[in-house]
Design goal:
With 412 residues, the chain is α/β, with parallel strands linked by helices. It has two domains: 66 residues, no CATH class; 241 residues, 3-Layer(aba) Sandwich (Rossmann fold). It is built from 13 helices and eight strands. An eight-stranded mixed β-sheet has the order 1-2-4-3-5-6-7-8, with helices on both faces. α2 crosses α3, α5 packs across α6 and α8 crosses α9. The radius of gyration is 22 Å and the shape is globular. The chain binds 2-acetamido-2-deoxy-beta-D-glucopyranose (3 copies). One 2-acetamido-2-deoxy-beta-D-glucopyranose binds next to α9 and α11. GO terms for molecular function: carboxylic ester hydrolase activity.
């Protein structure tokens, strides 16, 4: 290579590598260099996916799903755990049964995250699989005494709301009605989920607390891990004062709109970012008090930034009933007083932080027993940061341990 070429080439390579290897991150994150590496991997896979789209290999969603499938390791049976694939009322489920459980064991019904669009029950790094692996990572040295069911609910955009919600309700009702057939004590069942899965867990808990479901055994608890619980206000501090530049609010809206059956065009995203996805009637309705900064602890409140209005009245009209549907967004429920006790985990550096902080406050006001854990030094998705043989992500393990203690406290 000639000198001139080298002089031009090397800085370009360095700049490109710098972009991929370095993402600006807030101070004080635990295991920051690891997060840096995760984000580098994310950027590189996003680049490959967008190249694949340009080359005509499929849509971005298809390719991202294929990539995830490729990097997924399905859990297998071992001396401690039996993993069973089956279906409950037609919904694919992976059941993790510790070999030591008694014939009537408590259970967790788990819903995976992935923006209602990605991943599945057996995803490599999710909660279920990690509980399954945890003795290998030698932190929680006994297997949990409960059975975990993890469902592959239908995903958007092919199946918008209420498909995923309906599947999760159907699957949970199946566990409550037929648990004895696979060793579950139906009086000792809780729901849990992370991110979109936490949204589904809260929605299922809400649905099952309705009067018409009163003949089913009551859920013992809901475990809600950094979850999106509203699509009302995209100017909340956690959305507008978010230091994780790789995941701006537009990313969340790219999941929310397809979940609601809408296309996330740049224009539609801009409408949402300026909160004009709400009709004027909604903006004046009683729902304004369900999502409001006064529900946040004072240290989290911020003046909303000025964002230029982008209007699309057709979109706002189409979203009008969905935005306030509490089974899509549990913070829109008027009455939370029949819900089971909750463990709510929030992360400081997370778009959905304020959703869950408000949920904590609203549950407490409704008289629900809430255990709230706020993690100041982690980012959204840490449940996806799987512990593996050469790496342990501390926050993840700490949370598994918390959840185990919590679940055991609420089982009878
Ligand atoms: C099964 O559990 C025991 C005791 O916790 C542990 O020592 C062993 O490594 C586990 N086996 C596997 C395959 O994880
Ligand atoms: C469960 O299904 C997955 C595919 O969805 C497969 O990879 C895995 O081996 C199955 N596990 C068992 C124990 O049959
Ligand atoms: C407004 O949103 C709807 C629904 O997404 C879309 O079909 C329409 O093209 C948008 N209108 C304008 C003017 O962009």
């Amino acid at each position: 290579m000639g000198t001139l070429a080298r002089v031009l080439f090397i800085p370009v390579i360095c700049a490109v590598m710098g972009y991929y290897l370095y993402t600006p991150l807030p101070d004080g994150l635990r295991q920051k260099s690891r997060i840096q590496l995760f984000y580098a991997k994310h950027k590189i896979s996003s680049l490959l996916i967008s190249m694949g789209v340009k080359l005509g290999f499929g849509s971005g969603i298809e390719l991202a799903r294929r990539y995830q499938h490729y990097t997924m390791v399905s859990p297998l049976n071992d001396e401690n755990i039996t993993v069973t694939n089956t279906t409950f009322s037609g919904i694919p489920v992976m059941i993790f049964t510790p070999n030591t459980v008694s014939s009537k064991s408590p259970a967790i019904v788990y819903f995976h995250g992935g923006g209602w669009m990605f991943l599945s029950s057996g995803t490599k790094s999710h909660f279920t699989n990690n509980l399954y692996r945890k003795s290998q990572i030698n932190v929680l040295n006994t297997y949990s005494p409960y059975i975990i069911t993890s469902f592959s609910y239908r995903l958007s955009p092919e199946h918008p709301f209420p498909a995923a919600f309906d599947d999760c309700v159907t699957a949970t009702v199946h566990v409550l009605q037929n648990g004895h057939k696979f060793g579950v004590d139906s009086d000792n069942v809780g729901v849990a989920g992370d991110s979109a899965g936490g949204n589904l867990a809260a929605a299922v808990a809400l649905r099952l607390s309705d009067e018409k479901e009163s003949r089913l055994p009551k859920l013992r608890f809901q475990i809600i891990i950094y979850s999106v619980l509203q699509a009302w206000d995209f100017k909340l501090p956690s959305y507008t004062h978010n230091e994780i530049t790789l995941f701006p609010s537009s990313v969340m809206i790219k999941f929310i709109l397809p979940y609601l059956g809408e296309v996330a065009t740049d224009e539609n995203i801009a409408v949402c970012l300026s909160n004009n996805h709400l009709t004027p009637a909604l903006k004046k309705s009683k729902f304004t008090k369900f999502v409001d900064q006064s529900l946040l602890p004072p240290q989290f409140r911020r003046t909303p930034p000025k964002i230029d209005d982008v209007l699309n009245t057709t979109l706002a009209k189409r979203l009008e009933t969905l935005i306030i549907n509490p089974y899509a967004f549990p913070l829109m429920a008027k009455d939370l007083s029949r819900l089971p006790p909750a463990f709510v985990l929030t992360c400081q550096h997370d778009l959905t932080r304020d959703d869950a902080l408000m949920y904590v406050e609203r549950l407490r006001k409704a008289g629900i027993d809430v255990q709230h854990k706020h993690v100041t030094d982690a980012v959204h998705d840490f449940f996806l940061r799987a512990p593996n043989n050469d790496f342990t992500y501390d926050v993840h393990l700490e949370t598994l341990s918390d959840l185990k203690v919590y679940a055991n406290k609420y089982y009878k």
